């Protein structure tokens, strides 16, 4: 019995000491390619007049020890345009991405811009949002106090369809007849 307890203690001590082995962490993709930090990830235009200038500037800084390359900056729809630096951003240098929204599209908007960085799988997401008034300067908010139109049965033209069996010699033919 004494030998079993000693063997169990030795096994537990050995497994504990091997589990405490220091493992060097692998460098992340961010460390290899660089990292940028934005001053803000969202720009709220607030309320815009129809066809007003709608330009947002997102400033960022390369805080890594290596240069960073933006491989693509893509908007979620065609109503949003982007301008971004195609050249390498050196360490500790700043850059900016300009996002332009088409303010001829009336109503509320919330658009995403995806920033792709060389060596990083997932893009950084920037957001522009706001509301564009119509040409008369009015908001297109839904008025909950106005009831939706009602469709009345008498306004709908109806037709009754009836199956009729016609005997033409040796065959029965099914036809539909409008009433």
Summarize the structure in words:
This protein has 179 residues and is mainly beta. The protein has a domain at 29-132: Immunoglobulin-like (Sandwich), CATH 2.60.40.10. Helix content is 13%, strand content 40%. The chain is built from two helices and ten strands, in the order ααββββββββββ. The strands form three sheets. Strands 1-3-6-5 form a four-stranded antiparallel sheet, with no helix packed on it. Strands 2-8-7-4 form a four-stranded mixed sheet, with no helix packed on it. A two-stranded antiparallel ribbon has the order 9-10. A hairpin with a 6-residue loop joins strand 7 (107-117) and strand 8. The protein is extended and about 95 Å long. The termini are far apart. Mean pLDDT is 76; it is low at 18-34 and 150-156.
What is the highest CATH level, the class of the domain at 29-132? Answer: Mainly Beta
Secondary-structure element string: HHEEEEEEEEEE
Major β-sheet profile: 4 strands, antiparallel
Strand content: 35-45%
Mean pLDDT: 76
Assign an overall shape.
extended
What's the total count of β strands? 10
Q: CATH superfamily membership of the domain at 29-132, which one? A: Immunoglobulins
Radius of gyration: 34 Å
Using the 3D structure, state the CATH architecture of the domain at 29-132. Sandwich
How much helicity do the residues have? 10-25%
Number of helices: 2
**Helix/strand class:** mainly beta
In the sheet with the most strands, the strands line up as 1-3-6-5
| CATH fold category name of the domain at 29-132 | Immunoglobulin-like
């Amino acid at each position: 019995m004494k030998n079993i307890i000693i063997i169990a203690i030795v096994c537990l001590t050995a497994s504990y000491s091997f589990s405490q082995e220091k493992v060097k962490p692998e460098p992340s993709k961010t460390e290899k390619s660089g990292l940028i930090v934005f001053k803000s990830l969202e720009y709220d235009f607030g309320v815009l007049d129809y066809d007003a200038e709608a330009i947002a500037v997102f400033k960022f800084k390369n805080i890594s020890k290596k240069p960073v390359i933006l491989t693509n900056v893509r908007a979620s729809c065609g109503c949003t345009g982007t301008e971004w630096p195609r050249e390498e951003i050196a360490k500790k240098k700043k850059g900016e991405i300009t996002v332009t929204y088409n303010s001829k599209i009336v109503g509320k908007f919330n658009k995403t811009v995806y920033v792709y960085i060389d060596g990083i799988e997932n893009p950084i997401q920037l957001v522009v949002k706001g509301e564009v008034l119509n040409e008369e300067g009015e908001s297109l908010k839904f008025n909950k106090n106005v009831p939706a139109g009602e469709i009345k049965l008498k306004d709908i033209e109806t037709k009754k369809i009836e199956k009729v069996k016609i005997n033409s010699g040796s065959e029965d033919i099914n036809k539909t007849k409008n009433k």
